[in-house]
Amino acid sequence: MKLIIAYIQPEQLNEVKQSLYEKEVYKMSVTNAMGCGQQKGYHETYRGADIEVNLLKKVRVEIAVNDEFLDTTIEAIIAGARTGNIGDGKIFVLDLPDCIRIRTGEKGPEAIG
């Protein structure tokens, strides 16, 4: 079992969800996040003052998958999130030692579904 964490541009979220749905991946958690990477933010002027904005809006998508869905899920995220511009995002893959479905008490790969 793996936990996939992807940071993507907010405007790409619908494309990523559509791409995941096409690959029959329906379960995910989505959270608003802020961060910076190579983009290093930008400068803007507000009421005559120069302001450096170095934390940009991102979306964090978390998906727990069984091993056989790992590559398919990653490919779907990339297909939906890639624009070819700097700041498209990052994908992290972590080992998931256990998963427990609260309603039924199922454990392991069966609990992910």
Textual characterization of the structure:
This protein is about 25% helix and about 35% strand. The strands form two sheets. Strands 2-5-1-6 form a four-stranded antiparallel beta sheet, covered by helices on one side. It has helices at about 15-20, 70-80, 110, and strands at about 1-10, 30-35, 40-45, 50-55, 55-65, 90-95. The protein is of the alpha+beta class. It is built from three helices and six strands, in the order E-H-E-E-E-E-H-E-H.
Could you estimate the helical fraction of the residues in percent?
10-25%
Q: What is the averaged pLDDT score?
A: 91
The ordered string of helix (H) and strand (E) elements is EHEEEEHEH
Number of H/I helices: 3
Alpha-carbon distance between the termini?
11 Å
Biggest sheet features:
4 strands, antiparallel
Beta strand %: 35-45%
The best one-word shape is: elongated
Low-confidence stretches: none
Structural class: alpha+beta
Radius of gyration: 17 Å
Q: Would you count the extended β strands for me?
A: 6
Order of the strands making up the biggest sheet: 2-5-1-6
